[in-house]
């Protein structure tokens, strides 16, 4: 099973916008009934693929539980070594600081995020995005809907919800 990213936009402008998709990505018109039931008749939906197969690698959700598990594992490790509490806390703080210095790879791939923002500007907000894990052609699933402002999208995208058609408003 794979992740699939779908974008919906105005049919009238779709060819022009889709031609500007980052070069290593391809798109195809998708007619998943779960998605098309939630879009306006003058809109069209496209699946966006990497490596001609799926959208895996184009989006990475934040994993706060994974970070917490890692922190707990480090605490257990240091306690097992007999470290005092103040030394453990200092080591954990240093570990967290080193992680925050690295670029976290949460959310959409940078060039795709920039493209979504550009498309939303070009189409004056007539853009929606959905991420689905499974088979985009055959799956029937409950689609939720959400609206966000374009300026909030870079932050929102880090925890982008699955199976939610998110309309980006200008």
Shape: elongated
Q: Could you name the CATH topology of the largest domain?
A: Alpha-Beta Plaits
Query: Reading side by side through the largest sheet, how are the strands ordered?
Result: 2-3-1-6-8-7
| CATH class call of the largest domain | Alpha Beta
How does this model look, in words?
With 170 residues, this protein is of the alpha+beta class. The chain folds into two domains: 123 residues, Alpha-Beta Plaits (2-Layer Sandwich), CATH 3.30.70.120; 38 residues, no CATH class. Helix content is 37%, strand content 27%. The chain is built from six helices and eight strands; from the N terminus they run βαβαββααβαββαβ. The chain has a six-stranded mixed sheet. Helix 3 runs antiparallel to helix 4. The two termini are 34 Å apart. The mean pLDDT is 87.
Short overview:
With 170 residues, this protein is of the alpha+beta class. 37% of the residues lie in helices and 27% in strands. The protein has helices spanning 11-18, 33-36, 64-80, 85-101, 110-122, 153-156, and strands at 2-10, 25-29, 43-50, 59-60, 107-108, 127-134, 144-149, 164-169.
């Amino acid at each position: 099973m794979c992740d699939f990213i779908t974008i919906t936009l105005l049919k009238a402008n779709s060819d022009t916008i889709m031609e500007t998709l980052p070069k290593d990505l391809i798109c195809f018109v998708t007619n998943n009934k779960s998605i098309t039931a939630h879009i306006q008749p003058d809109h069209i939906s496209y699946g966006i693929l990497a490596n001609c197969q799926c959208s895996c690698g184009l989006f990475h959700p934040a994993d706060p539980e994974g970070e917490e598990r890692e922190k707990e594992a480090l605490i257990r490790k240091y306690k097992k070594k007999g470290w005092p509490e103040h030394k453990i806390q200092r080591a954990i703080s240093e570990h967290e600081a080193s992680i925050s210095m690295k670029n976290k790879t949460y959310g959409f791939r940078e060039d795709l995020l920039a493209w979504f923002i550009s498309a939303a500007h070009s189409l004056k907000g007539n853009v929606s995005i959905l991420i689905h894990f499974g088979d985009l052609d055959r799956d029937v699933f409950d689609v939720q809907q959400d609206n966000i402002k374009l300026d909030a999208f870079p932050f929102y995208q880090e925890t982008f919800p699955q199976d939610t058609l998110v309309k980006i408003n200008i």
